[in-house]
Amino acid sequence: MGAKITEITDEIIETGVLKAKRRRTKTFILAILAGAFIALGAHSSLLVRIGVGLGLAKFLAGIVFSTGLIMITMTGAELFTGNVLMTLSFLEKKISAAKLLKNWLVVYFGNLTGALIVVLLAFSSANQPEDYLNLAYLTAQGKISLTPLKCFISGILCNWLVCMAVYMAQYSKDTIGKVFGIVFPITIFIIAGYEHCVANMFFIPCGMLSERLLGGVFENAGTSISTVAFIKNMIPTTLGNIAGAFIFVTLPLWRVYKR
């Protein structure tokens, strides 16, 4: 078992080196795809919750949302939260801090671009039902109402699970095994409602647009969702996502299996 985990860790380290060497244009394109895949999963996870009891709704949403990471895994797209695992390559001194940060910056804004494209396409392709618009608004409202500390801690828990999903998918060499390795950790994070910065690149802008389409009249309405509120959620969530992956995945596994 230990030998197998060491082998997987080595594979992730080498993948991090390849990511750091890839041309920025290619990285940005792959990041757009990843942001779009997560957004498509997020969009569908809202749709599947309509008219379903809370527990079952979250379970179904988790399974549907997992499709985003499955598509990323199968295409080699670049997801910011998964790329925190590149810190393994950094700890092994195979990439520099500068290359690591450059990759993260390109991927982060590529993910944002992909997510926003899906927001626009989803609302342009069909008239979303009022129940969807209301749910999208309330989901975004719940996210911007969190304190920075709660966003940070929730972000830690979220990316701990996401990076374990990446690890578990890497553990399997066949498609079915990879799918099952991804679905369960991702479903846990959706059921628990943890904060994922790339998913929020869809959820919060989607809520902003839903608010405008419904004229600001909502059940249990809170404050208007602004760009400033979006950024205030994104900063601690992103930092929490980085901390969660580094502290609870890359650092302990590197210390145990590579030192």
Q: Counting H and I runs of at least 4 residues, what is the number of helices?
A: 11
Report low-confidence residues grouped into runs of 5 or more.
none
Measured by DSSP, the beta-strand proportion falls in: under 5%
How many strands appear in the DSSP assignment? Answer: 0
Instruction: Give the SSE string.
Output: HHHHHHHHHHH
Structural class computed from helices and strand pairing = mainly alpha
Radius of gyration, taken over Cα atoms and rounded to an integer in Å: 18 Å
Helix percent reads over 70%
The end-to-end span amounts to: 17 Å
Main beta sheet: none
**Average pLDDT reading:** 94
What general outline do the C-alpha atoms trace?
globular
Quaternary structure: single chain
